[in-house]
Amino acid sequence: MFHRIIIYFLTASLTVSALIYFSLPLSNINGAHKFYVSTSNIEFNSKSGNLEIIQRVFIDDLEAVLSARYGSKIKLAMVDEPEKNAEFIRRYILSQWRILGDDQELTLNYLGDEYDIDQIKIFIEVPVKEAPKVLFIENKTLFDLTSDQQNIIHVKVGDQRRSLLLFSENPNGVLNFK
Fold it and tell me: Which of 154, 122, 121 shows the shortest CA–CA distance to 137?
């Protein structure tokens, strides 16, 4: 039996809300998760002139997609993790993101990752000349794993906060900071 949990994500100004439904079987709460979501926080750092991205993805989902994509069983978060895993993660993540700032294609620089319990935090920076007024964001991470995947993006530019809910049928969105 499935129960629905409804979560509202609201921006600070309460102008944007995204409604997300997660289905969790009660018999499997302590086992493998049955919802597919990643969250990303993007913040414009005026001192460095970068958009700073931290994306959180469940480790088992990333293992599954990397194993399918690169043709071998990949196990992440091991004590002696092979260096090739870091390259697989970098290559995959950079192929899933696309960002345009004020109609200009932006370069994404993969900085690295760190493990946090059952998730991996992925760090990306995007050099920009000034705070963007309009951001086009595409994040297709894990859409090739399951059609149930949802990617939540929270963006902060100055004192303005905006959010996007992306899914396989709608992998991108535009945010205005004018």
Answer: 154
pLDDT digits (tens, 9 = 90+) for 26-83: 333 344 556 789 999 999 999 999 999 999 999 999 999 999 999 888 999 888 888 8
H-type helices in the chain, by residue range? Answer: 59-70, 83-96
Distance CA 71, CA 62 (A): 14
Task: Identify the sign of the CA torsion 117, 90, 124, 112.
Answer: positive
Q: Considering only CA atoms, which of 170, 169, 171, 143 is closest in space to residue 36?
A: 143
CA angle 61, 9, 91 (to 5 degrees): 30
| CA dihedral of 120, 163, 152, 45, whole degrees rounded to 10 | -20
Domain boundary assignment for the chain: 34-176
pTM for the model stands at: 0.80
Q: Using one digit for the tens of pLDDT, what is the confidence trace for 78-107?
A: 888 888 999 999 999 999 999 999 999 999
Give the pLDDT score at 9.
Answer: 34
Structure tokens at 111: 């900085």
Q: What distance in Å separates the CA atoms of residue 148 and residue 142, rounded to the nearest whole number? A: 9
